[in-house]
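help with this:

***
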Amino acid sequence: MLQIVNISDARTNLSKLIQKIKETKKPVVIVQDSIPSVVIYPYEEILKNDEEREQLFQLKFKEVFAEGGNAFKKYLKQKGIKKPRTEKEAYSIIKDA
């Protein structure tokens, strides 16, 4: 559950608020004029989320790259083109497609 704190309380008790965020590892929403304004998030959680996002990106990239390779092989087979031996040959086939 998100903790919500108004900006005046956050300003007055910033040190305590930071300590609580570090201990609970939960973000705090700061509201200004009853409107959510910013979120203070534990630094370790940001690092963890960035690492997880990078891992998901790498996984998705590998999947897309493999799909592209499979599609290229299928294209070569359909067109009766022998498998290129070099990268230059592969790019030439793609360029002419």
Remarks:
- The mean pLDDT is 91.
- The first helix runs from residue 7 to 12.
- The CA atoms of residues 6 and 31 lie 5 Å apart.
- The first strand starts at residue 3 and ends at 6.
